[in-house]
Fold this protein.
Amino acid sequence: MIKDREAYRRLCEHERWEALRAMTVEQSVAVGEALLTSELMDLAVFPDDDHPMSLARSLRIPEARLRRSP
């Protein structure tokens, strides 16, 4: 049972930041693209919708580097 919620919140926040810092650029791009292509984006409204491009492509990350497993 969690007795000190504030301490637990700080610990979780620290662990989240450490996990993000440990990610490679490719992993960060993959997470970003997964979020952008998820059902969560169905909730988002973009009145000036342009035609989105893959973030990895716009950063010119070779597709072969994105396909390798960690």
Notes: Residues 51 and 58 are 13 Å apart (CA to CA). The chain has a mean pLDDT of 82. Residues 5-22 form the longest helix (18 residues).
